Write a sequence for this structure.
């Protein structure tokens, strides 16, 4: 995914949590582990918000994980 961009009209950027959650297989290693924002890949240290769950399966194994976004 690409990082949120600043709007041309001077409005605030779209928050990362507004982006749709990709499948678990499309997340980076850091985002899958919960260490980085799923939308912009910014490292999460404080102020992260739980956005939802990325779903994924490999055969009988559930690869789903919680995803976090920066503020």
């Amino acid at each position: 995914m690409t990082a949120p961009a600043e709007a041309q009209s001077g409005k605030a950027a779209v928050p990362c949590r507004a982006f749709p959650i990709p499948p678990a297989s499309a997340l980076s290693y850091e985002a899958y582990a919960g260490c980085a924002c799923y939308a912009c890949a910014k490292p999460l240290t404080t102020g992260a918000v739980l956005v939802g769950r990325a779903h994924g399966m490999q055969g009988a194994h559930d690869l789903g994980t919680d995803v976090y976004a920066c503020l």
